[in-house]
Amino acid sequence: MAAGALVEDLAVERMGSHGDAPSVAGAAPQRAAPAVQAQDAPRAAGSEGMLMQELVTSGLSVGCATAVTNPLDVVKTRMQLRQAQSAPSPGLVKTGVDIVRIEGVGALWKGLPPAVLRGLLYGGLRLGLYSPTRDWLQRDAADAAGAAGAGIASKPAPASAGTKLLAGTLSGGVAAALSSPTELVKVRLQAADNVHKSAWDAARAVMEADGVRGLWKGATPGLVRASVLTASQCATYDEAKRRIMDATGWGDTVATHLTCALATGFAATLATNPIDVVKTHMFVAGGRFAGPVACARELYARHGAGGFMRGFAANYSRLGPQTVVTFMVAEQLRRIAGLQSL
């Protein structure tokens, strides 16, 4: 919705700026309107094309990162499911070794098709909508400030940290709401007791048991996690990049991207790990929990506060590299597409 409003706002704003031009020698303003509209049409289309470039470059970068880190995602999921079954967790490395020894190397790539599909859709939406949403919020704030200042022109200030967090929250929430079924199917396929032969088989089993609505089981913690993840990832990277470049004098280089992405991965993991644990339990438990709050209460009663950080090492070992790959690939794809750097 934010992206659609952004495109519409750009088109109206440009039409308004031409429509307010004074007429010459009493010429009727109506005569200029068709030409103005003809000029504005390709500009509005250009805004839509730029939004599509944002979505495509973001989806490709997240899809690439997802494919690279899928084995770590499988290990993380298994560790969290062991906790749900009250079984002792042998640790990150031992869990990975056990998976390969018992199920073969191919088990580390379970759930890859829905994971990549989710990366293309979910990643494209949550990262692709971030910059347009941030700019839209910032422009509205600047318009309000300009009206309050009686039209006094001033240099636009960079978006505040609050604006960046809000933009990430909105874009992440929209993305999660639309792509939650692919996340549920991915987790079902990665479970140790999985009996499904394919992503479609898993999705069909869910619909037969719980109806179409069952595909959105656990969507609430997933939506909250996506909002927190996108807000922490995008806002941290955005803010860290600006501050690091100002403090060190570094340019918009690969070294800058790597430094910011490493810090972003840690911050995002710290913020989302508790939500990720609740979400994973709800995806696997079906209708056992009345909601995310009930699930969180049971986790706390059984494992204490530390239970919400279970699998942190595995989560960071996946989300850290995934964040690095995502942002570094995204920066290069944006440069190739002619988009402004993140």
Total helices: the number is: 11
Largest sheet, in brief, is: none
Mean pLDDT: 78
The SSE string, one letter per element, is HHHHHHHHHHH
- The helix/strand class is mainly alpha
**Assigned CATH superfamily:** Mitochondrial carrier domain
Q: What gap, in angstroms, lies between the N and C termini? A: 21 Å
Q: Determine the CATH topology.
A: Mitochondrial carrier fold
Family: Belongs to the mitochondrial carrier (TC 2.A.29) family.
Organism: Raphidocelis subcapitata
Pfam family, one: Mito_carr
GO cellular component, one term: membrane
Molecular structure report:
Pfam families: Mito_carr. Residues 17-41 are annotated as: Disordered. Residues 21-41 have a biased composition (Low complexity). It comes from Raphidocelis subcapitata. This protein is an all-alpha fold and 342 residues long. The chain has one domain: Mitochondrial carrier domain (Mitochondrial carrier fold), CATH 1.50.40. It is built from eleven helices and no strands. It has helices at 2-19, 33-84, 92-103, 112-128, 130-148, 161-190, 199-210, 219-248, 254-285, 292-303, 312-337. Helix 2 crosses helix 4 and helix 6 (161-190) crosses helix 8.
